[in-house]
Design a protein that fits this description.
alpha+beta, 7% strand, 57% helix, Glutaredoxin, four-stranded mixed sheet
Length: 219
């Protein structure tokens, strides 16, 4: 099994954590990244395997799967133990919705933080209004996730892809200076629990180390 992987790709990070949690061996093929050029030029294998030219791309034998959500679902179907989805159909659907919400509702606000505070500024400078709006949207997501965690250790009972996807995105927001505040105590406790899992800790530490080294080296 091979995984085409972006060193700072949050979507690839989700897959790497899932593979680690399931203790699956895989060959990690890293695509190039720099602060100035980001992921350009595209890795030729990724361009050939994925019409969107994006990572992650999983190759398992003759099968090629791209899109992190689809990869997570495939891994669960192909390698069901330990499970990363609930067994009961309604809870399984809820878990899928929460994982998708991390990508579709939370990540866009985090992307604005990345664009405005991580990458080099454009010639016209930073956009403070964009940053403020992103933080407001994240605060709303924090409140909703805090409510989802009422009476639960993890978002869907047991540790699941909903926790992986949500944590990876929120961890990026925290690294960029906007972590959940005192008003969402259940979410804060959940973040501590998830961060303590060995697979998650390994991933976050590796990403942070890569980012620090790359930024220190410059374009």
């Amino acid at each position: 099994m091979k995984l085409y992987s972006g060193p700072l790709s949050l979507f690839t990070a989700k897959v790497r954590v899932a593979l680690d949690e399931k203790q699956l061996e895989f060959q990690r093929i890293e695509v190039g990244w720099s602060p100035a050029n980001r992921y350009l030029p595209h890795h030729p294998d990724v361009a050939a395997l994925n019409p969107k030219c994006e990572v992650p791309v999983l190759v398992d034998g003759d099968l090629v799967v791209y899109d992190s959500t689809l990869i997570l679902e495939y891994l669960e179907d192909r390698y069901p133990e330990p499970p990363l989805y609930p067994r009961e159909p309604s809870e399984r659907a809820r878990c899928r919705q929460l994982e998708a919400a991390a990508d579709e509702l939370t990540f866009p606000a985090v992307w604005d933080l990345i664009e405005e505070s991580f990458y080099p500024p454009p010639p016209q400078g930073r956009d403070p209004a964009r940053l403020d709006a992103a933080r407001e949207r994240l605060d709303a997501r924090f409140l909703l996730l805090d409510k989802e965690l009422t009476g639960q250790e993890y978002l869907c009972g047991g540790f699941s892809v909903a926790d992986i996807g949500s944590f990876i995105i929120l961890s990026a927001a925290a690294t960029l200076g906007h972590a959940p505040g005192q008003g969402v105590p259940q979410l804060r406790s959940w973040m501590e629990r998830v961060a303590a899992r060995p697979a998650v800790a390994r991933e976050i530490n590796a990403m942070n180390a890569f980012a620090a080294k790359a930024l220190a080296a410059g374009p």
